[in-house]
Amino acid sequence: ARGLLKRPSRLAFEAVAVTRADTISVPEGYQAKTFIPWGTPICGSYPAYREDGSNTAQEQAEQTGMHHDGMHYFPIDARNGKGHNSEHGLLVVNHEYIDAPLLHPNGPTLVDGKRTIPEEVRKEINAHGVSVVEIRRSPRNGWEVVGDSKFGRRITAATPMEIRGPARGHALLRTRYSRDGSATRGTQNNCSNGFTPWGTYLTCEENWANYFATQDSELPRELQRYGIGKTGRFGWNTLEGDEFQRFDATRKAETASGDYRNEPNHFGWIVEIDPFDPQSVPVKHTALGRFAHEGVIFAPTGPGKRLVCYSGDDSRNEYIYKYVSRDKFRPGRPDNSRLLDEGTLYVARFNADGTGDWLPLDIQDATFQAACAAKGIGFADQGEVLINTRTAADAVGATKMDRPEWGAVHPRSGEVYFTLTNNTNRTEADAANPRPDNAYGHIIRWREESPEHTGTRFNWDLFLLAGPEGDSRGPDNQPLGADNILASPDGLWFDPQGLLWIQTDMSGSQHSDGPFGNNQMLVANPDSGELKRFLVGPVGCEVTGITATPDFRTLFVNIQHPGEGSTPDNLLSTWPDGPGKRPRSSTVVITREGWRRVL
Ligand code: FEO
Known about the structure:
The protein is mostly beta strands. It has 9 helices and 32 strands. The longest helix is centred in the first third of the chain and has 10 residues, at 118-127. The mean pLDDT is 97.
């Protein structure tokens, strides 16, 4: 729906130098302003943020959550996917996870490794999920949250949701909460995102698996292959009561519908939210597969075309997927959402000769059946294939990638770009993942053979090898230098003129003492090969999430977990509120002097 803007011939800004400053650094001539940090009131009674962590669970459910991640700006006139308003819209933001030590006045309470205070855990559950924020810009005050909004909404890890697609009602989705396997509660670990041509938001469930615990010694593949362990990340499963026990997947009763052994099967999906209808029930679309969904990105579509979208599974040695709808897109129809319920899910094989194949994960397909039979892997129905997407992809021999993160589709050429952030577990290189012990990551791209992206053949190459000057290759085939060294590329987005924005998520020693400084954002011109650093974030953060207004005069970027590892007594960053204040994840509004287009 967005129009293409004319692209400048060169990137007309001075690259930002690598830095470890506890601030946002942008090029001269640009302004970066904090917006809707964690705890900002956005709905209900608009409770004010209290900087000592003492907001209640209910107040947290009316404020922005923690750990801002993927997001999208919907012009206020964009219901049904159209709209151009660049001064009034809905900003929809993922909240991936939490820093528990900063969420409460003195961190979480644990007694013998168990949680004891339900109110604390409820606050943690409410700090996850998604925010729908109505925002408006005035020339005098800039962007502000609209008070008393009819759209403002928090979706949390407890919000009721519907399950749709081929796995709806499956025996493996039946739980005590939903005895017919058609409903669930909550979305969590919402990392990257997407948006549909009909004006809805898609949020993706990534590292949900470690929130669940099971004491069973033998795990079914749909738990085992996703890494469900004996302890839950924040111990939610250790509290009594149905709202917490659902995170305990241990078999307890005679039947699956008597306990929560299947609750983990309700996660790992793509969830659709209609931001323009605050009463709408979010939908988990099982046809798009179950894995650690990083994001979802659509190929260009139009009236009478099938929908095509891509999604990566962000874990070491996991896969890249493509979904093609069975039916065609008809703008304005109220049931376009059904396009995400009937279609074919494919997984990518990158061949050494630069070609690639999309392998269908379809129980009706003869090659899929043969591959499963050859490996002794059986599925009763398509629902079981989708619940076990990773196992199905193993069966067909897809290419194990170096942690597939975000994708982006070039608005003109249709080329698809994907970040592969790193993989220090890789022992053997292959053509598409050319470095063993890949600490720095790379970006791959491909061009589909079929112009509408619906076919099963593609041609790929490597766009960039991230790393320091001595171990990298830029889009111009030269080593990277002072203006553009980077590591662990993660967020990826094409702006309306076809420039590629790249965000990084280094961690550990690469982050604390490498040559790369704090996490950053760069912009590339894929045609000329130019690549320059545009922004560096504050200490300990990840730079993630990016969207813009249609006029491209406002760019929204998210800063996640500044001062990661901080406690109330030991603040490793005090961005954005300043000395003595707890660090907060936040959106940053970037504008250019003279109210010009950002680039
Ligand atoms: Fe949530 Fe793959 O980063």
